[in-house]
Amino acid sequence: MKNTFTRRLAVAGVVSLVSIATSQPSGASTTAQASAAKPVSGNASGPTAKQANRALRKKIYAALAQHKEIDAGNISVTAKDGVVTLNGTVESAAQIEQVGSIAKGVSGVAAVKNQLTIQKPFGQ
């Protein structure tokens, strides 16, 4: 049993070394491949689009957290290039409008797609 374990461990080590050695291109081609694989953004020192979308979502959740009457735990926010989509449930039609207004008020939001629905809490 110990012999089988040792063999498997040795084989795994060899496979790992071979895969590392074959996946590492050398010299100038590494730089060319690395630069070709990077997405090109408008500002080389700025955040990527994914990071900007994530930051916008966080700002919207932070703005919603300022309003204790809104249960943001039932709301999902997606952002893409300044367009925000709100999904989930709130307790009233007034809150649908309120959440949409809060999202529109966050800097960086170009448009809001409000797809929230009403769901009364259990027992009401």
TrEMBL record:
Keyword line: Signal
SMART domains named in the record: BON (SM00749)
Record's keyword annotation contains Repeat: no
Gene3D superfamilies in the record: 3.30.1340.30
Comp. bias (Low complexity): 23-37
Span of domain BON: 52-120
One Pfam short name: BON
UniProt entry tagged with the keyword Signal: yes
Domain of life, per lineage: Bacteria
Residues in the signal sequence: 1-28
Region of interest: Disordered: 23-51
Compositional bias ranges of the Polar residues kind: 42-51
InterPro entries: BON_dom, Lipoprotein_DolP, Transpt-assoc_nodulatn_dom_bac
The protein's name in its UniProt record: Transport-associated protein
